[in-house]
Amino acid sequence: AQSVTQLGSHVSVSEGALVLLRCNYSSSVPPYLFWYVQYPNQGLQLLLKYTTGATLVKGINGFEAEFKKSETSFHLTKPSAHMSDAAEYFCAVSDRSGNTPLVFGKGTRLSVIA
Amino acid sequence: EPEVTQTPSHQVTQMGQEVILRCVPISNHLYFYWYRQILGQKVEFLVSFYNNEISEKSEIFDDQFSVERPDGSNFTLKIRSTKLEDSAMYFCASKGTGANVLTFGAGSRLTVL
């Protein structure tokens, strides 16, 4: 069975500082990996995904994530935080068939301090 | 940009009452899902639906839950007799054929008193 662990339920950074949100996965086969963002009172919006190819993937709003198979990690980063980045971030995993449900982590709330 | 639409955005109900949450998936999508998020907890899979039948369901999706696609555009989640622990945000999602990305709606917040 697949699972996702997000370290840190709440991360606080200063505006302009590096954002690092951690995600580790457990999967018996190479998975597909996703980061979703949830702004207040909104749905889950896809930030980026890793399926095949380049292990460093770039998403919207300047975010990127790197798939590291040896570390079973898919950490999300952004070089410089903006106030508008304050939201809940969810890492998710699915298998490559595309027919099994997404499994989500518990989420990390990002706060950005002026 | 196409989006998944959910109604109501918030519903308050008394314990034991029936609730129907509605979703309009993206029009050419064929795979439909319900997830829920209890406050402060992770987003959990409830059920997936394809070709007019349930393709997979979690242990959460017991006999109190049902899904239906009554008219080719709506996708509904019914909870027959709500319990306090059903209070959560319920997300609908849909996916197109050959795609590996789910598009989520904004969610329906259910509060059971």
Salient structural properties:
heterodimer, A: 114 residues, mainly beta, six-stranded mixed sheet, four-stranded antiparallel sheet, B: 113 residues, seven-stranded mixed sheet, 11 strands, globular
Could you describe the 3D structure shown?
Chain A is mainly beta and 114 residues long. In chain A, 0% of the residues lie in helices and 51% in strands. Chain A is built from no helices and 12 strands. Chain A has strands at 3-5, 10-14, 19-21, 24-26, 32-38, 44-50, 56-58, 64-68, 73-78, 87-94, 103-104, 108-113. In chain A, strands 2, 5, 6, 10, 11 and 12 form a 6-stranded mixed β-sheet that branches. Chain A is globular and about 40 Å long. The model of chain A has no long low-confidence stretch (mean pLDDT 92). In chain B, the strands form 2 sheets. In chain B, strands 2, 4, 5, 6, 9, 10 and 11 form a 7-stranded mixed β-sheet that branches. Chain B has strands spanning 5-7, 10-13, 19-24, 31-37, 43-50, 53-57, 65-68, 75-79, 88-95, 103-104, 108-112. Chain B is globular, with a radius of gyration of 13 Å. Chain B is mainly beta. Chain B is built from no helices and 11 strands. In chain B, a hairpin with a 2-residue loop joins strand 5 (43-50) and strand 6.
